[in-house]
Write a structure and sequence with these properties.
There is one protein chain. By secondary structure, the protein is an alpha/beta fold. Helices cover 51% and strands 18% of the residues. The strands form 4 sheets. Strands 8, 9, 10, 11, 12, 13 and 14 form a 7-stranded mixed beta sheet that branches. A 5-stranded antiparallel beta sheet has the order 4-3-7-6-5. The longest helix is centred in the middle third of the chain and has 47 residues. It is elongated and about 150 Å long.
């Protein structure tokens, strides 16, 4: 009857089979798992053979099983060394393989001569396993020597290895191997001096089980690690393929190892292979030979020019170059937006200066307008003098247009937004602007075109400047085509606009075009290529469009003309015409308070109002005007109206004055006047309690219309 210890080899076999099945079930195909599966299966077969050898002794099969077990033991060392090679990530040692195979063949041969080397014998129905001169060399050559060599490899790798996880794995296997070797040496060498092999052999499987558990735990940690690595690799591959940047991986010889979709879309044409020469051909100021590169440059691919940020670096192992990675990020849109913002900031800074100059200049022009108006109203001018006065007024009008252009840069010249019909506006401005030029125009306006929310005068400036720009681009004449269309802008569009409904006006000419070197500068103030230009035309256009919440862009090719696209906010409200007529005869009565810091304006405006029939009192600032108003209250005299300048340097201006006067008399009629303001009061005067606004410089006819409107209200 078999003793309890006889079942120890069977238990060891089952444990190793379980570990083998567990690793196999994970289906992780790698060298380490494969070598471990071979080794654990061989151990399970050896333990099973040991158990069967004892179980089948009564049937005379013990010696046969013993031969099989010893044959497996001869290659156990080879399997174990293979596993160690996989663990330390080292290629197999061919020399050691030759020695292993040779020893196995040499040692296997004597096993066939059972009559000469008896390793088992059967007496009295009991299987007696006895040591022979052959058994000890088998264990030394096939188990002890490979195990010692494996320990040497593991110890060396533990010393030089710098990976924490690998060191833990190797340490587990190392100490498991030490324990197993010492334990087997104890069982097969030391204890047989005192006990019989028959009693000791079943306990040898205990060391095998412990060793197997150590090795399994190392494999388990490795598999957990590789699972994480593979997941990371899958995520990294997904990012690599779907990242918007073009990423290229070259080997040290310049061959493409890998490229992502963005790189293929950017560089591949008709199946061309991406090479360093192709990159140097497409990328300006680029050299593949540089080691580390990080700079901004232009890239021309598939007849399209990009602005890109290029990064290039080497992948090294110690001092050896393995590969070169190149990353190209398209920053064209980012650069365009930055230039747009920079241009807006420049325009705003110039606008502050221009607004201050225009304010003072408009005061001067207002005085000149009033002087000419008084001369015309005197009725004493000769025919020749009337012609001179009209020419002077025309000159003042031209000067006022220049100040209006300067004021376009100023935040104070806010647009007077209203609903405008696009067709009549285009027709009227283009017909007037191109009269007497060699250029002709044609309009393409659909009947379903939306109206726009815009300042009629400022959009007229936009149309005029774009028409003049197109005319100057065609010295020999040509066609200017204006196309209007409805556009709905969404977040997916490349235009830098808020989503919504817009009307796009496209001004197309067949002129000389704009060189690529200056196309980014054409909207800059005072930049011009025209001998007689002042560089304000397109800058004014850009500023007006921005103030209207719109957008302008240009596309041009030298020698093939230019196209300017203007986006303006659409309005669903129908446009209403506001006919304005100048009264032929105007006469008023009552007292008007005039507040202005310019003495010339105070003097001339007083005379003009006096000719209309008003009594006039003047003040140079808000404080003086309040004193006059308080005095009039004490006299029980009221003002018919107040004309106040909006901006008084260093003193109370029209806004504060109006608030204080309206607190005392909410029905007082106040007209606000200014040539420049940082507040949109001139446009939205009703919101501040004022009855009207008038822009400097203004003519006597414009003053008549404002007074007529205010006094009738």
């Amino acid at each position: 009857m078999l003793s309890l210890t006889t079942y120890l080899p069977l238990l060891s076999c089952l444990i190793n089979l379980f570990l083998f099945a567990y690793v196999t079930g994970q289906r992780r195909k790698n060298r380490l798992n494969g070598s471990y599966m071979a080794f654990s299966f061989a151990i399970a077969a050896t333990c099973l053979g040991d158990y069967l050898m004892r179980l089948l002794v009564p049937y005379g099969l013990g010696p046969l099983i013993a031969h099989i077990v010893l044959s497996i033991m001869l290659i156990l060392g080879f399997f174990y060394i293979n596993f160690i090679y996989a663990l330390i990530n080292r290629k197999s040692d061919i020399f050691l393989r030759i020695i292993t195979y040779s020893v196995s063949v040499i040692a296997l041969g004597p096993l066939l001569f059972r009559n000469h080397f008896l390793i088992v014998e059967q007496t009295h129905g009991r299987y007696n396993f006895q040591p022979t001169l052959f058994l000890i060399p088998v264990f030394i050559v096939c188990i002890i020597l490979p195990g010692a060599y494996a320990l040497l490899l593991l110890a060396r790798r533990m010393i030089v290895n710098d990976t924490t996880l690998s060191r833990k794995q190797i340490s587990l296997v190392f100490w498991g191997s030490v324990f197993s070797l010492l334990y087997e040496a104890l069982i097969f060498v030391v204890l047989p001096l005192f006990f019989s092999y028959n009693d000791l052999l079943p306990f040898s499987s205990v060391g095998i089980v412990v060793h197997s558990v150590f090795i399994y735990w190392s494999i388990h940690r490795y598999n957990l690690f590789t699972v994480d690595i593979e997941q990371i690799q899958r995520v990294a591959l997904h990012i690599f393929e779907n990242i918007s940047e073009a990423v290229l991986l070259f080997d040290k010889n310049g061959n493409v190892l890998q490229e992502n979709q963005s790189a293929a879309l950017m560089f591949k044409e008709a199946g061309k292979t991406i090479t360093p020469s192709l990159l140097e051909q497409c990328l300006a100021d680029y050299s593949y030979e540089k080691e580390y590169v990080n700079f901004q440059t232009s890239c021309i691919c598939r007849d399209k020019t990009y602005t890109v940020m290029l990064s290039q670096s080497l992948i090294k192992q110690t001092d050896r170059v393995l590969a070169k990675i190149i990353m190209i990020r398209d920053i064209s849109e980012q650069v365009r937006i930055e230039r747009e913002l920079h241009r807006i900031h420049r325009v705003e800074s110039i606008g502050v200066l221009a607004g201050g100059i225009a304010h003072d200049f408009n005061n001067c022009l207002s005085g000149v307008y009033s002087a000419f108006g008084l001369l015309k109203m005197s009725g004493t001018l000769s025919h020749e003098n009337e012609i001179i006065v009209k020419e002077g007024e025309a000159a003042v009008h031209q000067a006022s247009l220049l100040t209006r252009q300067l004021l376009t840069f100023s935040k104070g010249d806010a647009p007077d937004i209203g609903v405008q019909a696009v067709g009549p506006l285009l027709e009227g401005v283009l017909a007037f602007t191109l009269r007497g030029t060699k250029a002709r125009y044609r309009l393409n306006i659909p009947e379903t075109l939306w109206h726009i929310s815009a300042d009629k005068g400022q959009i007229g400036q936009v149309i005029q400047n774009l028409a003049l720009n197109a005319d100057q681009a065609m010295p020999e004449g040509g066609w200017i085509t204006v196309v209007a269309e409805n556009r709905t802008v969404t977040t997916s569009d490349s235009v830098t606009l808020f989503p919504g409904q817009y009307v796009r006006l496209s001004f197309i000419d067949d002129g000389v075009g704009i060189p690529n070197s200056i196309i980014d500068k054409i909207f800059d103030p005072y930049f011009t290529t025209k001998p007689k230009g002042n560089g304000l035309g397109l800058a004014i256009v850009h500023s007006i469009i921005n103030k209207h919440g719109g957008h302008i862009e240009v596309h041009s090719q030298p020698g093939k003309g230019s196209t300017f696209h203007v986006y303006l906010k659409a309005s669903i409200t129908p446009a209403k015409e506001k006919p304005e007529t100048v009264p032929e005869q105007f006469h008023g009565s009552g007292k008007i308070l005039v507040m202005d810091d310019d003495p010339v304006i105070r003097l001339l405006l007083s005379r003009v109002l006096a000719t209309f029939g008003f009594t006039v009192e003047v003040a140079e600032n808000g404080e003086s005007a309040l004193s006059l108003y308080d005095l009039s209250i004490k006299r029980q005299e009221s003002y018919t109206a107040v004309i106040a300048d909006l901006t008084i340097p260093g003193a109370m201006g029209g806004k504060v004055l109006g608030e204080k006067l309206l607190q005392q008399d909410p029905h007082l009629k106040i007209i606000i006047a200014s040539g420049y303001s940082q507040d949109p009061i001139l446009v939205n005067f009703q919101n501040y309690g004022f009855h009207a606004s008038i822009r400097k410089p203004y003519t006597i006819d414009e003053l008549k219309m404002v007074l007529t409107k205010v006094l009738k209200s």
